[in-house]
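Whether sequence alone determines local backbone shape is best considered at the level of individual chains. When preparing material for the folding task, we compiled for one chain both its residues and its backbone structure tokens. No coordinates are needed to read the tokens, only the vocabulary itself. For completeness, the protein is quoted in full, as a sequence line and a line of structure tokens:
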Amino acid sequence: MFFDKLNHASLYEAIFLSGAELVRYHHLDMGNLSTLLQKYSHDSRPKFIISETIFGMDGDVLPLEEIASLALAHEAFLYLDEAHATGLMGPDGYGLSTTVDLKNIPHLIMGTFSKALGCSGGMWPAHRV
């Protein structure tokens, strides 16, 4: 699991509970992520890149084009946490993940209704309708 160092604690907990190997990259540093992906390029295990799109503590925004390109180049599954972007960012508030073409990249987008939308629940949209 290639993991931004400033991801939310709940994402860390999920990785720890899964027993998967955690490979942290410097916050929003796509050069560092690229180096780590290259280092593990001969490892036969599936690769997952996990990041928030907007980081809740400081509002930093993920460079989506770059991370999508890295996921495609390294055949990595891309998991994007849109908790802080859902309802606020992207076309019609669908989140920042809708601003980049992900159709050739295996991915999962997580959003929540409990922040900007002001109710409870969550979603894992397969695609924008």
Q: What stands out?
A: Residues 59 and 103 are 26 Å apart (CA to CA). The chain has a mean pLDDT of 87. The longest strand covers residues 107-112. The chain has three helices and six strands.
